[in-house]
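Encode chain A's predicted structure.
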Amino acid sequence: MEIRPLKPMDLDGVREIDATAESAQYLHIERKGEGLSTSWSLSPRPLREKRTHRRALDDEQALALKQIAAGVEEGIALLAEHDGAAVAVAAARHDPTASVLRLLDLRVDFDFRRQGLASALMFQIVQEARRLETRAVMANANADNFPALQFLAKLGFEPTGLDTHWRSNHDLVKESVVLFWYLTLD
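Encoded structure for chain A:
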């Protein structure tokens, strides 16, 4: 297994990574109050039925990876290879205005999960954030991708906000709210 910087020519291999996410739980988000008196509570709950998300690399993600790999955007893009095949990728973009390194993508092939690859990639992302002297690493994850939420919490990330309308006007009802997570580096 080798982890190295991503190159633009690696993108075809990255598209082949099976980043399928399965979850039997979600983080239930409950809204209380109105206007400026709104509060939210979060609690893990079982899903009515297991959810499987294919998580195919879309064109926007591919472009972001390519720009970072080519040095057009400031950030870090890493590839993990096994026997010459791409098995994991992580990328983060530097946002100097907010003084954060924003995690754009982290995907590990389904057959290579639970071997520490995601942790190793995130360790290098955090090291890059420290090198850039940012205040935090930022990530987002859907409330119905419970394995991702558990992973971020295990790494010390804290949920700091949510968007109940990221993809539609019914994300809260569909249990697919986007949560924002920060790993503070001070």
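Residues 30 and 41 are 5 Å apart (CA to CA).
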